[in-house]
Structures are given as C-alpha cells and as structure tokens.
Amino acid sequence: MNESSSSQRHYDVIIAGGSLAGATTAILLLREDSSLKILIVEKSTTFGRRVGEATVEISGFFLSRVLGLTQYLNENHLIKQGMRFWFYNERTQNLSDCAEIGGRYMARVPSYQVDRSTLDEEVLRRANKQGAEVIRPASTGKIDLVPGGEQTVEVKRGDIIEKYSARWVIDASGCAALLARQQGWIRPNKAHPTTAVWARWTGVTDWDGYELAQKYPAWSMACLGIRSTATNHFTGDGWWAWCIPLKGGDVSIGVVFDQRTVTFPENGTLGERLKTFLARHPVAREIMADAKPREGDVLWRKNLPYVSSTFAGDGFALVGDAAGFIDPFYSPGMDWLAFTTYSATQLILAQRMGKDLKPLLEKHNHDFGISYDRWFKAIYENKYDYLGEYDLMRLAFLLDVGLYYLGVASQPVKLGMKAFSMPMFSTKPSVPFFHFIRFYNKRFASIARARRQRNQRGRFNDNRRFLFPGYTFAPSNARHLLKGLFGWAIVELLEGWRSWFQSNTPKTTIKDPMAMPIASAAGEM
Q1: Most buried of 159, 190, 376, 424 (most Cβ within 10 A)?
Q2: What topology does CATH give the domain 10-52+116-189+306-378?
Q3: pLDDT tens profile 380-439
C-alpha cells in the first residue's frame, strides 16, 4: 500500500484506524468525491483476528449491496444460516436432550460469517485502490480539535512523531475510542457490566457431520437446513456463548456473562477456563469435546459496554466501536458501523457543499445518543435474566427478530442507502416500538427472576424443539409476531402474575445446580 510522502502533510480527511469502519468511511467518501485527499493511519502491520464475525440482515445488506462485496464474501467467507439457541437443565444428559430454537430450512435473507482479519484487509485494500493513502504501521497520538478549522493529528512511525492536518478527523479506532477518551466523552455503561472471553478453536465437532447424525439420528433429521454455519448460541442463567464457523475450518467460540451474577473458573490457562465453563452445557460439551484453542488467540475483555457523549462536531466524527458498544448478542456491531459511517460521510459532504452544519450536527448527536440509549434499554437491559429460559427466549426470538425485520432490516430494501441515515429507534415512528420492546423484555426478565426464587428456572429447557420457517419481508410474516404475542399472553396468565410484585428484585449471584464446581471472582483473569 502507498505511504504518504513526508512533504504531504495536509489532507481533507484523516482517519484514525484502517479496519472495517475506517476503510468503509474512506470508500463511501471517495465514491461521492474522488478529489478528496484522505489519509488512513493504521497501527497494525497486518490485521489480526477479532470478534464481530457474524453479520445480520442490515450489515449483510451494507457489506454486499452498499460496499459491493457480494462476490468477495461468497468466495472467501461463509453464508450465515441464521441463529440457533440451545438450552439445558438438570434433565439434559446429552445434545439431543437439550431444547433448541432455530431455523428448519436455509436462510432466505443473506448475512455472513466473516473472518475479520481477511475482511478488514480486503476493505482497506479497496479504500487504498480507490485513492486513500495508507500509513501502516503507525499510531495516532494526540488530536487537537479546532471547530470549523484545521484539525491537527500526531502520527508516530517508529521513533518519529510527525504532525498532520486535515479539515476532518474520523475516529475509527475501535474500542480504543481514541477521541472519546482524549476529550473525556467516554461513558461506561455501568447498568450492564459484562465480560467476554473468546478464542478460535480447532477440532470442533461438525454439527452436520456423520458422527452426530449416527449418534442422534432423530435430532439430525429434525433440521432440514444446515446447523453448522448458523451462529449457534449456548445459553445459561446470566450468560450466553457463541459458536461461529470461519472459512478454512477454525471456529470462533466465546462466552459473555453478567459479572454481577455469574462466576468464572480461576484455575488453568484462559483457554482451559473457557472450555471448563462451557462444559457445563451438554451441547457445548459435545461439540467441543476434542476442541483446542489456537495458541495466542485466547482473549478477554471486562466491562464491555460504553458510549461517547459526543458523536460528531465541526471537524470530527466517531464511527463504529469508537462511538460506542453495547453487547455482542444479536451481533449489532456492524449495524452500528453501517449507520455511523454512512452518517459521518454525509456530514463531511454537506460541509464541502457549503451547507449549514449546526443543525446537521445537532441532529447527528441527538439521533445517535438516543439510538444507543433506546437500543440498550429495549433489547439488552434485563436480557441476561432470561437468556437461559427456553420458553421465554422462544417468545423473545419471535418478537425481537420479527420487529427487527419489520422496522429495521426492511428499510434499506424500501429506501436504499438513505435508510442508513436513520439509526435504530431515532425516528418518531419507532418510539412506540421502543417502548413495546422494552416492556416485554422487562416482563420476561421479571418472570425469569420469579422462577429463580421458586427454584423453577429452566424447567422447559429439555426435549423441546422450535424449528422456525424464517422471517422475510412479506406482510404475511406478521403472523409470527401474532404467535409471539399470543404466547406471551399465555405465559402472563399462567405465571406472569407472580412476578408483578417481584419485578424490582435485586440481582444476586446465581447458584447453578447444573454447573460443575467453579471458583469465585468473575472477570478477574
């Protein structure tokens, strides 16, 4: 890739970070204005693997239709076959005993399982080919912001520190959140203290292979699609784990847990502790029986969620994880990336056309602020209280996914790229849906907490299978939402009344009778 010459120190746009968010921003800008001088500063020599490997319908559309990566994705990554969830209790002895939620057939709306190391390289290569200059390896240091003026960026290459200037700086530094931390905008989401531990594994059993088909023939024949290329979720009380296949045979497996309620093993290497933790689940125990983590590819992160109090100003914008992160459940990270990168490019193009930026910036900061807040409160707040309940997650699956298709994933199909200027829950028509989603998620969490108090949690987690035909954008798919609503009403009538008086019960550490003995001190790794 091209390195900028020492004489070229001024650019129209400097992008801190060359992975997917940064390279995407450069591509979108250069498509609209090829005269732009854009510099991408990337700290790595080559990208390593990272989490964020599963896309969903919005990010699948963005990667394939907006960035034009369909052929590349088909050749180098895997078509995702939706989501699957696996549940266990004291009666589940093996994989076939565990309750399952997932598709019966193949997925009908495309999304992908991607190896981020190769995807990030390809998108950066395309940005470079389109005209963006790239400096790597180089780290971005102090950024001096001048509203409406020239922004100054320190760039360190080896022992040399150089200063560059640009009318716009884009922070695409990921969870480093460079600008938000330098400016004091970073806000940890203390209402959702979660930890993640993950690795890439070899030797993972093939979900659709001959071995399991012979061992559990009825289980194998129940699904007419492909289980192995779905995002398979192992679930428990206060935690969930992902199992995502990558092209070439490696499998990404990691766990996310609520630090307030779940403990993690203390003894052994981090990879051994992760496997020990997951072995409590019969499905994970079967699938990972011979699995080994890739050496040097076992990582963890504590206190996952955060957000910036500022998303853009006259001369800067934050995109992707540099602007905020909520939770990896339902794989929302690339959706957020799509909305933030597209909206940031619109600000820059508007300024270059001489438009008044003040109202645009006010709207941008307002929309992304309430989008993050509502996204968290509707989907993720309280979710971990009922992740391990098959019947409640079945209803949440129908409602969450159905409303996502209806109100979010359908918008690019109807509106094209304009849809990416309207982040989730930021428009007036979405407000009633926000309140509705938040309400039923709170109710499911309250019912689950009441079950825990009565020692009845997980009672529906064995020998049940909900194999779903799949959502599309057809109006007839509303019937699945109606089924979810009807099922919710039944649960409320049978036992929901018990939880009305316990909805504010404080969280306590979960004592899991189905788990093997585990030491204390969650997150201390």
Answers
A1: 424
A2: FAD/NAD(P)-binding domain (3.50.50)
A3: 999 999 999 999 999 999 999 999 999 999 999 899 999 999 999 999 999 999 999 999
